[in-house]
Amino acid sequence: MSKKTRKKTRKKSAKPTSARSSAKKASGKKSKAKSKTKSGAAKKAAKKTSKKVAKAKKAAVTPVRKIASLAEGDAAPSFFLPRDGGQSVALTNFAGRKLAIFFYPRADTPGCTREAMDFSRLSNAFAASQTAVLGVSADSVKKQESFRDKHKLSVPLVSDEKHEMLKAYGAWGEKSMYGKIFTGVLRTTVLVDSRGKIVHIWRNVRVDGHADEVLAAARAL
Question: What amino acid positions are annotated as catalytic residues?
Fold first, then answer.
């Protein structure tokens, strides 16, 4: 075989090798690009997940603020809710009369029972001072009726299971018990005058002597 023939043969055999190597390089670049894209997407997904987790943790430990704040001098928020005895009650039912509304956490618990019994004991005195009295909690009508019958209560008991009136009157918000924070009924009493204006608000009520204090305030109007 001559020298020229050998050179030609070498050149021909060299061509496929270079083509193979360039193809390998191209496929390598593609796979690297794919892996980069995949790792980038994975990082983004991981970031989103960690943000969601952090958000959920923050929400779990952040105390809930009071939903509404009512001030003396404000117009009493309207309401229309069921009460014991199968009737309904509205703010308009008390037009031209004073109205004392006591919001209590739960029917038939010790503090709420004492408070409801005290207002019942003074119901005639409130009536003499042209003041109606309502007790409101998030209990069902059935529970309110059992509460009334068990303790012979004479004041109407209103059921606000959706917390609409409780929120409107600032009696629903943050509570703490045994280090745990949760939302619930805040023991609150509101006195409304005959024109429908809020004249006095008692917050964080202490039950002992409270009904007598509300009666004195109603008599002074």
Answer: 112
